[in-house]
Amino acid sequence: MRLVSYKLKGKPSSLRVGFMLDEKVIDLQEAYRQVLLSKQDKDLSNAIENVLPSDPTHFFAAGNRTIDKAKEAYTYAQKNSTEGFSLLYEEVLLYTPIPAPAKIICVGKNYAEHAVEMQSDVPRFPVLFAKFSSALIGPEDVVVKRDVTEKLDYEAELTVVIGKEASQVKKEDALDYIAGYTIGNDISARDLQKRTPQWLQGKTLDKSTPVGPWVVTADEVGDPGNLSIRSTVNGEERQSSNTSKLIFDIPFLIEFISNLITLKPGDIILTGTPNGVGMAMDPPQFLKDGDVVQIEVEKIGQLKNKVMER
Predict the structure, then answer these.
(1) What are φ and ψ of residue 201, in 5° steps?
(2) Are the C-beta atoms of 169 and 261 separated by less than 8 Å?
(3) C-alpha separations of 134 from 2, 84, 101, 209, 298 in Å
(4) First to last CA, the chain
(5) Which domains, ranges and CATH numbers included, belong to the chain?
(6) What is the DSSP letter of 189?
(7) What is the distance between the alpha carbons of residues 219 and 96, in angstroms, rounded to a whole number?
(8) DSSP structure class, residue 166
(9) Among the residues of 80-132, which ranges form H helices?
């Protein structure tokens, strides 16, 4: 199931969570209301916001409990009419799936070939840094290239969405804590990133980090350790790899991080980028006004964004 965050085009509306079905966007809360009515549970259907939030951030923060309800609504919608709560794709704008996660944790240098191209040692432990939600944008948004940087770079990343509270998790149990997966582009201002020992200022500029276009539930992805991942800039392939090449795989990362920080439902983890970034090219190829970056991850889809100077 592909879970999306959307608003209606050209109309004042709040951000709502939905899912894709036959290239239509189905409002999740309204679909689940029909599930309750089919069970003759009018009381719960009238208090639907308490049962299944319409706000995407609140929905994912409720964890796998609401994911299970979403799957029930999806099954219902496959078999019954969705008239009244389905929208054509062209009628909506998609936003980043979780607009305000409590934590955005990123992993640096997590592919050996990328560490080498950045003239760095292969790390013995995961290199962790954070972003803020003000950096997040969605599949319909432009990456803002601001005057503060001349060296804006792309990074294709498989992104994990946490589904239940995780503290001191063992790696053999780690996949049970995942709600789903999406795509991240860890846009990096290399000049800002490299001017101090801490990377933060180069990694979390406002409106710089596309995540989306949807969250694919974990049951549909299966093994996250064998997914092709690639990026193109203006149609030219730049990165092409597979998550099997991660130095620290996703179960290890969840064990490692959850022994330092309690992960909450709705938290996201950007798991690292393969080799082929612009900074490592000869000569370096940084993003400029008008460039189009497309990230593809197997079983999840494509995330495409244009770069615009402002």
Answers:
(1) -65, -25
(2) no
(3) 24, 33, 10, 9, 27
(4) 36
(5) 2-95 (2.30.30), 104-309 (3.90.850.10)
(6) E
(7) 21
(8) B
(9) 112-117
| Residue-wise pLDDT tens digits, 128-147 | 999 999 999 999 999 999 99
What are the DSSP calls for 236-303, one per residue?
A: EEEEEEEGGGBSS-HHHHHHHHHTTS-B-TT-EEE----S--GGGSSS-----TT-EEEEEETTTEEE
Indicate whether 43 pLDDT > 80: no
Q: Which whole-number Å values give the CA distances from 196 to 21, 190, 299, in the listed order?
A: 47, 11, 37
**Which amino acid is present at 1?**
M
Q: Residue 104 has which token pair?
A: 């955005």
At which residue do the structure tokens 């319909």 appear? 140
pLDDT of res. 41: 84
Tokens coding 304? 């495409």
Q: What is the pLDDT of residue 3?
A: 98
Q: What is the pTM of this model?
A: 0.96
- Predicted confidence at residue 297, as pLDDT, reads 98
* Residue 305 to residue 213: CA distance in whole angstroms: 10
pLDDT of residue 45: 78
Instruction: Name residue 210's beta-bridge partners.
Output: 137
Dig out the tokens for 261 from the structure.
Answer: 């920080």
